[in-house]
Amino acid sequence: MPDNQQTTQSLDEKWTQYAHKHLVGRKITNVRYLSQEEADNLGWGKRCVVLHLNDGSLIFPSKDDAGNDAGTLFGQGPPDDEGKAEDITCPTL
């Protein structure tokens, strides 16, 4: 396996394990948007959705890895009887 493939695989495994540790088995207990004060404290011009987890963690999207501003959360609902899934978008405000 070429080095770049090993590196990509290693990074995938590392961050998958990290996400697994922090997310698997958790339940979303509340959903809200960042307050303007919270966004200001982060130095962000936009506000995003915040997921409260049952262990006290807060999860919220950023537009990039450096946390430079709020991000949009995307997803898909379960497929209906025709196999179509609703797109889910929690935009920045």
Describe the structure.
The chain has 93 residues and is an alpha+beta fold. The chain has a domain at 27-90. 30% of the residues lie in helices and 28% in strands. The protein has 2 helices and 5 strands. It has helices at 3-23, 36-42; strands spanning 28-33, 49-53, 58-59, 73-79, 85-90. The strands form 2 sheets. A 3-stranded antiparallel β-sheet has the order 1-2-3, with no helix packed on it. Strands 4-5 form a two-stranded antiparallel ribbon. A hairpin with a 5-residue loop joins β4 (73-79) and β5 (85-90).
Write the layout of secondary structure elements.
Blueprint lengths: L2 H21 L4 E6 L2 H7 L6 E5 L4 E2 L13 E7 L5 E6 L3
Antiparallel strand pairs: 1-2, 2-3, 4-5
The average pLDDT is: 94
Question: What kind of sheet is the major sheet?
Answer: 3 strands, antiparallel
Question: Outline, from the CA principal axes?
Answer: globular
SSE order, one letter for each helix or strand? HEHEEEE
- In DSSP terms (H or I, runs of 4 or more residues), the helix count works out at 2
**Residues in β-strands, percent:** 25-35%
Q: Numbering strands along the chain, what is their spatial order in the largest sheet? A: 1-2-3
Q: Uncertain segments of ≥5 residues (pLDDT<50)?
A: none
Helicity level: 25-40%
Distance between the termini: 44 Å
Find the count of extended strands (DSSP E, 2+ residues).
5
Question: Rounded to an integer, what's the Rg over CA atoms?
Answer: 16 Å
Estimated structural class: alpha+beta
